[in-house]
Amino acid sequence: MAGYSRRIFLDALRYSFPVLLGYLAIGAAFGLLMTDAGYPWWLVLVMNACMFAGAGQFIAVGLFAAGTTLWEAALVQLVVNARHMAYGLSMMNRFKNLGPLKFYIIFGLTDETFALLSSLPEENDSEDRARFMFLVTLLDHLYWIAGGLVGAVAGSLIPFSTEGIGFALTALFIVLMIEQMGRHRRPGIFIVAAALAVLCVLLLPSRLSLLAAMALSLAIGSCLPKVNLPKVNLPKRGGA
CA 118, CA 112: separation in Å to the nearest integer? Predict the structure, then answer.
């Protein structure tokens, strides 16, 4: 039984490894921003454990610094995190037979975790699958906590310039998008979504651009034909 559980854990660790690399860097960036804004290191730990919102946490730092009211902050976070409603709706069938584990998986459904879990095949509804999805979510959460803690401690001990560090989150999104394009071989929907996002940023007020880009991408993406790129057979290692 121990070897069986260890195998599932190692599979989840390998599967979530790209997020480990990203979350350590981005979590550290968030920790640095928090300490640079004058907040104690332990608050980073609490936010990463309880909020676990990625972009929402970066935005929260600015809201705190601007003295935003609770209701204004809640509205901004609702707009920024509205995309998670689409995530949840698209994962309903995958989560329906997960038992009690689904509540934590729903809590931990960040952009990166969604990208990993949504790439799993929909068949094979089993206890193994539930444990695997839970472990992927838990590991991603632990990566985020660890990265934030490293950044917060480093920021409290060593002076850092945080100029431009917020772009780390955008960089991770781009890496994950490229990975998904290669996995699904359907670049059209990604290109259309990126183009719509740029247009919305240029033509609409900043408070509306995110929601408008999401709505248009979902609407147009659902109408695109499923044209897949041809699969390329890579040579095996060792020249075989």
Answer: 10
Q: How far is CA 126 from the centre of its chain?
A: 25
Say if CB 172 and CB 53 are below 8 A apart. Answer: no
Return the pLDDT at 106: 92
- Predicted TM-score of the model (pTM): 0.70
Two tokens, residue 111: 């952009």
Per-residue pLDDT, 61: 83
How far apart, in whole angstroms, are the C-alpha atoms of residue 150 and residue 159? 14
d(CA 40, CA 200): 37
CA nearest neighbour of 174 among 51, 18, 15 = 18
Q: Classify residue 1 as exposed, middle or buried by CB count within 10 Å of its CB (0-12, 13-18, 19+).
A: exposed
Q: How far is CA 215 from CA 94, 162, 186, 208, in A?
A: 23, 33, 19, 11
Instruction: Say what the pLDDT of residue 148 is.
Output: 94
Give dist(CA 92, CA 100) in Å, integer.
14
Residue 154 · residue 31 · CB < 8 Å: yes
